[in-house]
Amino acid sequence: MAPRHLRTVAYFSMEVGLDPAMPTYSGGLGVLAGDTLRAAADLAIPMVGVTLLHRKGYFRQHLDARGNQSEDPFEWYPEESLEPLRPRISLTIEGRSVQIRAWLYRVVGVSGHAVPVYFLDTQVPGNGSKDQALTDYLYGGDARYRLCQEAILGFGGVAMLQALGYRNVKAYHMNEGHSALLVLALLERERQNGDLENVNEADIEAVRQRCVFTTHTPVPAGHDQFSMDLVQDVLGKERAHFLATSQCCLVDTLNMTYLALFFSRYINGVSHRHEEISQTMFPNYPINSITNGVHALNWTSPPFRRLYDRHIPEWRHDNLYLRYAISIPLEEIIEAHAEAKRELVAEVERRNGVRLRPEVMTLGFARRATAYKRGDLLFSDLERLKSIAHQAGSLQIVFGGKAHPKDEGGQAVIRTIFEAARSLGDKVPVVYLEDFDMVLAKYIYAGVDLWLNTPQKPREASGTSGMKAALNGVPSLSVLDGWWIEGHVEGVTGWSIGDSWEGEVQPSAEIASLYDKLESVILPMYYKHTREYAEVMRSAIALNGSFFNAQRMMVQYLKNAYLATTEI
Ligand SMILES: *Cc1c(COP(=O)(O)O)cnc(C)c1O
Fold it and tell me: Mutation test of ligand 1: which of 22, 31, 292 has the most ligand atoms closer than 8 Å to its C-beta?
C-alpha cells in the first residue's frame, strides 16, 4: 500500500468491476472504473478506489425460450475475495446512526505497485436489518434506497478514508454523479464544526480545488435526481437547506450532476463528441474531454498476449508499443484469432449446446441491453439479412447482455432478438448467451470476427467494448458515435454505419448502410480477400489498441486533471 503521507487521488465510483467473482458492476461504467484502477496500478499512481460492497450484486440473468428475463440475487462471499478492515465510521441517515465498515481489495499493476480499493459495507452488527441491507443491491430499490447508497458512498467514503489514515487526499475523482455528495462531506470538513450555514466562497473554492468530475451520460434524463423532500428526509434539514439555497441545485430537485459540476475544478466527458454534447447541456461549465480506454492486458486474450509478448514484449508495461503490431506477419494474426475463435465456439457449445461453425463469419454484440443501443437493429429486415447471408457469404451472430430489471425497453430488445433468431433458423444462426459478465465478455470480444455497435447517436458517450475487440484484432462495424468517431478509419480499422456523426438519426438510412456494407464490402473481403481482412484486423490493433487503452487515459487524467489540480 502507498505510504499514507503521499498525496493521493481518491477515485469514487458506485460500481467497480475488478473480479468476475465480485458482481459489483453492471456494465461499461463499472468495467471502466476497474480498468482505470488497474492502469493507475501499472503507472504506480498513488490512487485509492472507493465503492460499495453490493453483497447481492447486480443480478444473475435467466432467459426463457422466448427471451423473457428473470433475475436472481447474485450471492457472493466478500471474505473470499476481500480483506476485512477494522475501522468503523458512523453516518446519520434518515436520522439514524448507521455504522459503516470497509473491505480491501488490492489491484496490483505490471510492476507490482498496488492500488487499494475500499468497498463500503453496512452489514455491521448493531445496524438495524434495513440499514444492513443498504449496501446490498447495485442500482436496486427505489429513489430513497439509491439516495441512501449515494450518501454512504459520498459521506461514508470521505470519512472512511480519513479513518484509514489518508491525510493527504489531493484529488477526489467522481466517476459519474453517484458520488457527488462527497463534495458536501468536504465542505463540512472545511467548516471544521460541520456547519453549512456559514459556508463562504473560500470554502467552496477550497473544495473545488480538489474535485475532478467525469460525466458519462449524454442525455439529461439519465442524470440522477432526487426530490428535495427526500433529500431532507435522508440527509437532514441542514444539508437539504444548504443544497436548496446554493446555486448548484434546481428549485426542488437535487441533481447529482449539477452538484458535481458546481464543485469541480476539472470536468470532462469521455470522448470528443461527448464533450461537445455535454458542453451544450451545461453551457456554464468548462467541459474537457479525455476519451475512455480499456486495460490492454486485462482485455487481450491469451493467444494475442502470447503473440504480442513474442513481437513486442514491452507492450505490457507500455501499451504505446502496440503501435508496432503493424509489422506482425498477417499469418500470425490470423492464427491467434483462429485460436480465440475456437475458444469462443467451444464456450458457446458448453453454455448453450449450440455448435457454431468456426469457418463462418461471426458477428458479436454484447453489452447492457437497453433500448438506445439497439441490439435488434440488425434484424430490421430479416428477409434482406437472409438474402445477404445466402448471396454474399454465411453469417452467424453471438449476443449477450442483461437488461436492468426496471428497463422494459431493454427487456423488449432481448425478446425481439429471440424472435428474430427463431425466424432466421439455420439461415443465420443466432445465439444469445445468458448472464453476460466479464468472463463471457472476454470470450466474445476476442472470438468474433466483427464487432457490431449500433447506438442511437449521440447517446453513446464513449462505448468501450469496440476497444476491447480492437485489442484482439477484431474490427468494428459501428454507428459514428462516441469513441468510434475517433477510432474509425474506413476500411482500415473497421467500417462505419452511415457516413457522418452529424445530423439527425435516420434509422432507415442506418439500416441500409449496415446491410450494404455487410453485403458488398465486409463479407466479400472476409471470404474472398482473407489477407485484406487480416490487414484490417492488424491495423485495428496498431492504430486503436495502442491508443484506446487505459494507460493512455490514465496519463491524460494525470496531466490534465490531477496534476493541474493538485501538483502531485
Ligand atoms: C466493456 C463492457 C461493457 C461496455 O460495453 P459497451 O459496448 O461499451 O456498452 C459492458 N459490459 C461488460 C461486461 C464489459 O466488459
Answer: 31
